[in-house]
Amino acid sequence: MDSRTAAASLLKGMTVEAFVRRCYPVRAGQTVLVHAAAGGVGQIMVQWLKAVGAEVIATVGSEAKAVRARGLGADHVILYREQDVAAEVRRITGGKGVPVAYDSVGKDTFEGTLNSLARRGWFVAFGNASGPAPPVDPIRLMRGGSLVFTRPTLFDYIVTTEELDASAAALFEMIGSGRVKIEIGQTFKLEDARAAHEALERRDTVGASLLIP
Q: Is residue 163 situated within a structural domain?
């Protein structure tokens, strides 16, 4: 594996491994909501979920990104700027909602994610691209159907050397088998780090973004 592919895949790929295999173990046949599906983590997550037999509902910000998400295997694509995410998820699932939603966006998608969950559904919040999500009222989780809200971080899933090795091995197996392909969508010079962050906040990026010294 070349250095750029490693830089683009290790953190993002092990994050996906931890969250879809161990935080909430997704099973074949389940329907999963993935926000920012054309981003670095999102692209890996869509491919990984399809590899384990899940049905994927992806959200993206443009038709060009929708085409990319479908190419990765997404079964349904929602244009979040034009469509009501929760209403579309309910329509796709026959009113049931999804058992788990992965949200790396934060503030802008919080309500749509919460309202997309099935009874006893899991809200896995792991990013703040649009700003931090608001505080979660436990009573609202109860009224929503005994929902579970979690804010995991990868580094609580690779605490030991054994966990790190196992996570990396699972990722390398996915990449090596061709079931997960890594796309480097854009690169920035290190001195342009601010521009990189601004592009992420606007959700203008596709695939992984690298800072190059």
A: no
CATH code where residue 84 lies: 3.40.50.720
Which SS3 state, helix, strand or coil, does residue 133 take? coil
* Contact assessment for residue 40 and residue 14, using Cβ atoms and an 8 Å cutoff: no
- Other CB atoms within 10 A of residue 83 CB: 14
How far is Cα 180 from Cα 161, in angstroms, rounded to an integer? 24
Report if residue 38 sits inside a domain.
yes
Domain that holds residue 50: 3-156
Specify if 202 maps to a domain. Answer: no
Q: What is the pLDDT of residue 10?
A: 96
- H/E element holding 107? none
**pLDDT tens digits for 66-102?**
999 999 999 999 999 999 999 999 999 999 999 999 9
Q: What per-residue confidence (pLDDT) applies to 204?
A: 85
Q: What is the pLDDT of residues 154-199, one digit of tens each?
A: 999 999 999 999 999 999 999 999 999 999 999 999 999 999 999 9
Number of domains in the chain: 1
Measure Cα distances from 130 to 34, 62, 142, 195, 200 in Å.
Answer: 16, 16, 26, 15, 9
